[in-house]
Amino acid sequence: MPIKTKALTPSFLLEQTGASEEVFVSEDIAILHSLGPLKDSSATDILHTPQYVELGRIVLVTKGTATHHINLVPFETQAGDVLVIPQNNLISISSLSNDYDGQMFSFGRLPVDFEKGVRLRLSENDFGRMRHYAELLWEIVHSPYDRRSIEHMETALLYDLKRMHEHQSSVGIAAQSRGQQLFQRFLEALGRKGSLPRTVKAYADSLCVSPNHLSSVVREQSGRSVMDWLNAHCILRAQVLLRHTDLPIYEIADQLGFQSATFFSRFFRRATGITPKEYRAGKQRSK
Q1: pTM to 2 decimals?
Q2: Beta strand pairing status for 101-107 and 56-63?
Q3: pLDDT tens digits, residue range 241-253?
Q4: Residue 87 is inside which H or E element, if any?
Q5: What is the sign, positive or negative, of the torsion defined by CA atoms of 11, 15, 18, 23?
Q6: Count of CB atoms within 10 A of residue 162's CB?
Q7: Helices 226-244 and 178-192 sit at what angle, rounded to 10 degrees?
Q8: Which of 159, 137, 153 is nearest to 33 (CA)?
Q9: Partners of 25 in the beta sheet?
Q10: In degrees to the nearest 10, what's the CA dihedral of 265, 267, 272, 275?
Q11: Other CB atoms within 10 Å distance of the CB of residue 43
């Protein structure tokens, strides 16, 4: 079930970056010609707390390195990479180099559907073509334009990315073992089906395997148990709801499947070292 928050919509990005010349925002598209205004914003910790992406986005990394997490899955990015983040995903950033910069597009819809986060490590020519798309979009939105011209540009850009992704992944998928493929399917289910009961059996049933088999494969592939992954994803969703909604804590507990706010608070404190109320107030993990 999608999480309704006030984060990472075009209006929110404009609010956080201010009237920067590097930012364009309309009703259903946001373009950051440089990530500098967002990275340097003193008004928000948007890059350092978990977020919920309600709109699909594309990030072109032009400088530096970063580690993005999409539904807990890490994506190491560097200059020359493109990161595609579909709508309705939980994201966080665990590392960001001082010289990190790039360009970002946030669309009201993705004309080509990417079901999961994708990092593309492109050739110099392919990345250059993505930069040309970026510059052309930036030029179009700063001149009189019809919305349809933007839609066609979005479609062309995303179909080009999809072609590159399919070419790169065709080799990778063929080389994956059955265990690796099942683990990937588990991670996709974790991100896609947050409303499933937080049990090994629920996820095993959704993947048409036995709980024992799923547990064995996930442990072998990641070094973590299925419950470790489920609990971490639950905490991530809780952090987003606490920081980016005004929902009472008891309603958040109910959304996450806890019997009471008390049970939720104990679970959250065991995992983070602080209470939900303290996290909402901006307190950091206790030492």
Answers
A1: 0.78
A2: antiparallel
A3: 998 888 999 999 9
A4: none
A5: negative
A6: 17
A7: 30
A8: 137
A9: 30
A10: 10
A11: 9
